[in-house]
Amino acid sequence: MRFRRSPAATADTDVAEPGRGIELRGVGHRYGDRVVLEGIDLQLTEPRVGVIGANGSGKSTFARLLNGLVLPTQGQVLVDGLDTRTQVRAVRRRVGFVFQDPDAQIVHPTVAEDVAYGLENQGVPPDERAARVAEALERYGLAGHADHPAHLLSGGQKQLLAIAGVLVMQPARVVFDEPTTLLDLVNARRVAELIAGLEQQVVVVTHHLDLLDGFDRVLVVDGGRVVEDAPPGPAVAAYRTLAERR
Ligand SMILES: Nc1ncnc2c1ncn2[C@@H]1O[C@H](COP(=O)(O)OP(=O)(O)OP(=O)(O)O)[C@@H](O)[C@H]1O
């Protein structure tokens, strides 16, 4: 049986151009009257991109623009040439998003069911689904917890579960919004190592500056603008200077 495609579904089949990375063109965002981002023009193609800045500077809003969770009120965000405004489903398939608080992301009663959820939505057949879930649980140290209630996991395990649920979908790029903020040192290090080992392009918003070791590019956001765009050393120095001026 054939289903008629909606115009939106047709747009989602547009061919992606992976070499273009993530592009922000003249991007601004306001919530009501309040301008929280403005004048952002960037092309992000590097494997490891960090985003730092003071509380309330606009980092989460920036991160959410990258997979269409937030649409820009000005300008355009393109992922591999796909517009977050008109091709959001295709963009979401390409860009995974890990929230600071894993409870925002864990929706199913057991660990295995939670990881399987996205695959089910994508129509992945049961056998393949089971194999991919088992592989993800093994890889992220959750194999022994498959049938456990997700809400009983520790904070660190929950974050690993949330990450497993995103990575099992094999997105081309992953955005992390403060992935280690709620974690103790051991789990924060574990998540940092996990991020370092990913083959995908990664964009990480963080207040943990150690997480940026080895990154290619770090953006410093201040008052809704990108005020520094440099390798980690100079970017962190610029951020410290800004903080001292406050
Ligand atoms: N849904 C919303 N509605 C209205 N204002 C919002 C909304 N989300 C964020 N804001 C406001 O936008 C500004 C930027 O918020 P954002 O969460 O992007 O900053 P941030 O740099 O990630 O902050 P933090 O480091 O504290 O997480 C803040 O002033 C915030 O209060």
From TrEMBL:
Q: Which Pfam families match?
A: ABC_tran (PF00005)
One cellular-component annotation, GO: ATP-binding cassette (ABC) transporter complex
Q: Please name the InterPro entries in this protein's record.
A: AAA+_ATPase, ABC_transporter-like_ATP-bd, ABC_transporter-like_CS, ABC_transpr_CbiO/EcfA_su, ECF_ABC_transporter_ATP-bd, P-loop_NTPase
What are the protein's GO molecular function terms? ATP binding; ATP hydrolysis activity; ATPase-coupled transmembrane transporter activity
What sequence ranges are listed for the domain ABC transporter?
Answer: 22-245
The reply to whether Electron transport figures as a keyword in the UniProt entry is no
UniProt keyword list: ATP-binding, Nucleotide-binding, Transport
The family database entries (CDD domains) matched by this protein are listed as: ABC_cobalt_CbiO_domain1 (cd03225)
Family to which this protein belongs: Belongs to the ABC transporter superfamily.
Q: Can you say what this protein is called? A: Biotin transport system ATP-binding protein
